[in-house]
Design a protein that fits this description.
The complex is a heterodimer of chains A (about 325) and B (about 290). Chain A is mostly helical. Chain A has two domains: about 55 residues, no CATH class; about 240 residues, MetI-like fold, CATH 1.10.3720.10. The termini of chain A are close together. In chain B, helix 12 packs across helix 14. Chain B has about 290 residues and is mostly helical. Helices cover about 70% and strands about 0% of the residues of chain B. Classes of the chains: A mainly alpha (about 325), B mainly alpha (about 290). At the A-B interface, helix 2, helix 5, helix 6, helix 7 and helix 8 of A face helix 1, helix 2, helix 4, helix 5 and helix 6 of B.
């Protein structure tokens, strides 16, 4: 994968000779007709569900009316974008999106690396296996189920947090109306949901380290901690950098599934938890403002696209073998 | 073997402790929700959520199993998961196979055609309008399957796997007169079972946990998938009022809290039971992904 012309998708760009192109094209289609036929349903699917919506971006430049459709709606230039930026909401939701994602990336990576290191150091086979299964399991639940779990903890009357506070003689907190606590709660949930699963990749990396290195370090009298500090961590670094870089590419994409399932429509918590994706969803479903929603979505896609390209070129420099394309 | 020093043993004990504590952290929510769901509503209201049922009661479970909503939701989710996974696997592996065959001249163009969709997308609004207004798929079960049927990521994972299979296998079958469709379904797929299992499980889990598409496109109560049902009952009391309407006791108060918890438990039940069998495929698949970058 270190060759620049071959990427994750394996694309290479052959130079076509101009003469006889059409004939060559047809001959190729006939030669591999069964293979192209196999690919056809998926090609059509991608055209309909991925490329047609890209065409729908023009809504962002229209005053879209459902009655008139895309063809009949009036073009209004950049008015939708203007409207969004004038509303003043954008600073809040962009900040929330980036801030929450930075927290998620940092703490999830940290937790996943720690778990991977600790697990590999443990001896007992059954303990290791059970612990691993238990830690990965939460990842298999949908956020709607997690939201139910969350209620058992944060409910003002009878939730565990308040039960414990009362037991300690402290005043109860109204978590469901205090936005300040939620970045912390969401980070704890994210770790609960994804850290065990995320640690698998790091465990795979650690298990790929040559055991001779550890052996010779032991002979030289290195302690367990030293071995982790000077062998495991440096060898994990490229994987950590790669995965972090990839995650940074999506930093403007709020985790809609999580936030909408857990926060839902509790406006009291919006100050810290409303992200671009939830805002867009409400603008679309509640206000029916298709055009502004499309404008927000278009900007998000565009910024995301540029970010991925940037991040990839950084990855190429930092760790050439880890660039995506 | 070199004998472990005191510091090393201490460190190891600490690791055991940390991993143990984190495992407990992962389990506590399950335990508390299960325990609370077996409690009577009155006790739950009075004492709050608990780790041990203080007043054991199956009332909530009896109620949800009396009403057919949960069976229907199970039916919808099962149908979507089974049919969806089969369709996803067929189309994904067909496409992936074509991209993996080196004699296909335009395979890199095709790969880019798909790869680009991973980088840039038209956004929620355009998809929503397309599906609800132009394709008219609202309130059909297919809206839960078709718009999310193929994942480019899974397709490329499978393509990489197919590409690692020795070309000579397909070539010799070709010499014997087999066509590509036959080769894929009779030769390539049977020897790719481990990879197919992993990717099939990724798809199945995606379908099982699907709920957002239902928020967007499903208004018909009979088509609610399980996860969406959970989301609905958390946010409104329709369902609870509906299932308690059969009970004709004066001043009967529906056990709203326990019904919610019991429904959650019923939803995650199958995953808990299947998980030990499925886990290894997920781990294996992720390892493959890790090596590939």
């Amino acid at each position: 994968m270190r060759n620049n012309t071959v990427s994750l998708t394996g694309q290479t760009y052959p130079r076509n000779k101009p003469q006889g192109r059409i004939r060559g094209f047809l001959a190729e289609l006939v030669k591999n007709k069964f293979l192209y036929l196999l690919a056809l349903p998926a090609m059509i699917w991608f055209f309909v569900f991925a490329y047609l919506p890209m065409g729908g971006i023009i809504i962002a430049f229209q005053d879209f009316k459902a009655m008139k459709g895309i063809a009949g709606s009036e073009f209004v230039g950049l008015k939708n974008f203007q409207f969004f930026f004038q509303s003043g909401d954008w600073i809040k939701i962009v900040t929330n999106t980036v801030f929450l994602n930075v927290l998620f990336i940092t703490f999830n990576t940290l937790a996943a690396v720690l778990i991977a290191i600790m697990i590999t150091e443990l001896g007992g086979k059954w303990f290791k296996k059970i612990a691993q299964s238990v830690m990965i399991f939460p990842h298999f639940l949908s956020w709607t189920v997690v939201a139910m779990f969350v209620m058992a903890f944060v409910a003002t009357d009878g939730g565990f947090v308040n039960q414990i506070l009362t037991m300690l003689g402290l005043p109860a907190v109204q978590l469901l109306s205090s936005p300040g606590y939620w970045p912390l709660i969401l980070v704890l949930l994210k770790i609960w949901h994804g850290a065990g699963f995320g640690s698998i990749v790091y465990m795979a990396t650690i298990s790929g380290i040559n055991p001779d290195i550890y052996e010779s370090a032991s002979i030289d009298g290195a302690s367990r901690l030293q071995k982790i500090r000077y062998i495991t961590l440096p060898l994990l670094k490229p994987t950590v950098i790669l995965l972090t870089i990839l995650a940074v590419g999506g930093i403007f994409n709020g985790d809609f599934g999580m936030i909408y399932a857990i926060i839902g429509r509790n406006p009291l918590l919006y100050p810290t938890t409303d992200v671009i994706d939830t805002y867009l969803f409400r603008a679309m479903m509640d206000l029916g403002d298709m055009s502004m929603s499309a404008a927000i979505g278009f900007m998000q896609s565009l910024v995301g696209f540029i970010l991925v390209l940037t991040v990839n070129s950084i990855a190429k420099k930092v760790a050439p073998e880890s660039a995506i394309f | 073997m070199i004998k472990e020093s005191k510091a090393d043993r201490l460190l190891k004990t600490m690791f055991y402790l940390c991993i143990g504590l984190f495992s407990v952290y992962c389990l506590v929510p399950f335990w508390s929700v299960i325990a609370s769901s077996f409690t009577s509503e009155a006790s739950l209201v009075k004492n709050g959520y608990m780790f041990w049922p203080s007043d054991f009661s199956l009332e909530a479970y009896k109620m949800i199993f009396k009403d057919n909503t949960i069976y229907r939701a199970y039916g919808v989710t099962t149908f979507v998961t089974v049919v969806g996974t089969v369709l996803s696997m067929i189309f994904t592996s067909a496409m992936a196979y074509t991209l993996s065959v080196k004699s296909v001249k335009y395979r890199n163009h095709l790969a880019f055609y798909i790869y680009f969709t991973m980088l840039f997308h038209g956004g929620l609004v355009a998809s929503y309008l397309l599906i609800s207004k132009y394709l008219d798929m609202k309130d059909t079960i297919w809206v839960l399957i078709i718009p999310g049927m193929i994942s480019a990521w899974n397709m490329f994972l499978l393509r990489n796997f197919f590409a690692s299979i020795d070309d000579s296998i397909a070539e010799s079958a070709k010499i014997d007169g087999a066509n590509d469709v036959y080769i894929l379904f009779r030769i390539i797929l049977p020897i790719s079972l481990p990879a197919l299992a992993t990717i099939g499980l990724f798809y199945a889990l995606g379908y099982w946990n699907k709920w957002f598409d239902a928020v967007l496109y499903i208004n018909d109560k009979d088509l609610f998938p399980l996860q969406y049902l959970i989301q609905r009952i958390m946010n409104n009391l329709d369902y609870i009022n509906q299932i308690s309407s059969d009970i004709s006791i004066p001043n009967f108060i529906a056990p709203a809290m326990t019904v919610r918890l019991a429904t959650t438990v019923v939803t995650i039940g199958p995953i808990i039971f299947l998980y030990p069998f499925l886990q290894k495929y997920f781990v294996k698949g992720l390892m493959v992904g890790a090596v590939k970058g």
